[in-house]
């Protein structure tokens, strides 16, 4: 057992557990942050995607002992019902969810992708950016549309604030 | 050994890593990005007494040009490689391959050192290291040695790296001004797939139309280790690389590879795909060369 200190959604936290426990299990079991989902457990589906120091990773393949002093952002840190992010609002508006299991991972990946660009992405750009997130219901059309809608909204918001 | 009983240490220096590797009474393994190590731990295949966590060892994460070549730290992630202007300019074949490793999340996590040490015959960056004449620096408490990439791999998952050694540097040959490279991969889908066949090509071009002065071709996933296709390489310089010459070269490729049949594809399919990928790669390279 080890004491591990890190940040989750901006708050300093610590946990005492085996260092080989995955970050995903710690988030879900110890902090009740059940947005991130376990699906394949092998880094193939992206349902467990979180940001580590701003970089998207599969939390099912990160061991908790490896993230001492690191800042973790989960889907809950991107927005909740009361303060939805533009990406989340766009997913709602475009109806880009069905069963919802992949949605948190897609939201985190989309947020991270939009943070790095300053234009409305093409279909191909969205496909490359979200290639690590599998959805078995929607067929992706609405998801791609939602990401583009969010990008458009974000650009308008930036223009008005500038 | 249960997963929950495995210990973890996080050394801050290479020396500290080497010291822990040398401990004889405990089994240990490195873990960096974890994209392979954690999967194998969950499967029960890798259950060492101790994980030596080197994810945070930033002194081994760099890309820099030195007199004897471009030095890449083993903890450099695939994303770092994709974003490096130096590598885009002088090792375009490696940039291309790193873009094909997994999807964004895995490119953010996985490291080039991990790709090498894991020694999967399907590892996407490895064929490119063959065409860039990579040299692997192995360091132990006793010595430092340099192993050329073509002597590094012994078989699937097996290398000449000893238990007490650590990969501390990867040195590649920068491409020359007239050299262009490409990486072609066949997988079940575009993102996030393990190669069924892949090929790295780097060609030095001459003054005349499509004149090739020499080149290197390395296939992955078609034999226990990477295959340099020497026969195809010799054919590159016979005629200018117009369509007919390209078809001849690609036609010879199937004899150069020794694939197996497994869950991903049959040997026969791999052989014909090796030819097809080489042909496609050469067409694309020549198109790019014509349009430069």
Automatic annotation (TrEMBL), chain A:
MF term (GO), any: anaerobic carbon-monoxide dehydrogenase activity
User: Any idea which UniProt keywords this protein has?
Assistant: 2Fe-2S, Iron, Iron-sulfur, Metal-binding, Oxidoreductase
**Chain ranges of the 2Fe-2S ferredoxin-type domain:** 2-78
The record ties this protein, via InterPro entries, to: 2Fe-2S-bd, 2Fe-2S-bd_dom_sf, 2Fe-2S_ferredoxin-like_sf, 2Fe-2S_ferredoxin-type, 2Fe2S_fd_BS, Beta-grasp_dom_sf, Diverse_Oxidoreductases
Metal-binding: is it a keyword of this entry? yes
**Gene3D superfamilies tied to this protein:** 3.10.20.30, [2Fe-2S]-binding domain
Q: Answer yes or no on keyword Translocase.
A: no
- The EC class name is oxidoreductase
Its Enzyme Commission number?
1.2.7.4
Record-linked PANTHER family: OXIDOREDUCTASE WITH IRON-SULFUR SUBUNIT, XANTHINE DEHYDROGENASE IRON-SULFUR-BINDING SUBUNIT XDHC-RELATED
Q: What is this protein called?
A: Carbon-monoxide dehydrogenase small subunit
UniProtKB/TrEMBL annotation, chain B:
Flavoprotein keyword on record:
yes
What keywords were assigned to this record?
Answer: Flavoprotein, Oxidoreductase
Domain of life where this protein originates: Bacteria
Q: Does the keyword Flavoprotein apply?
A: yes
UniProt xrefs under Pfam families: CO_deh_flav_C, FAD_binding_5
What positions does the domain FAD-binding PCMH-type occupy?
1-177
Its recorded name reads: CO/xanthine dehydrogenase FAD-binding subunit
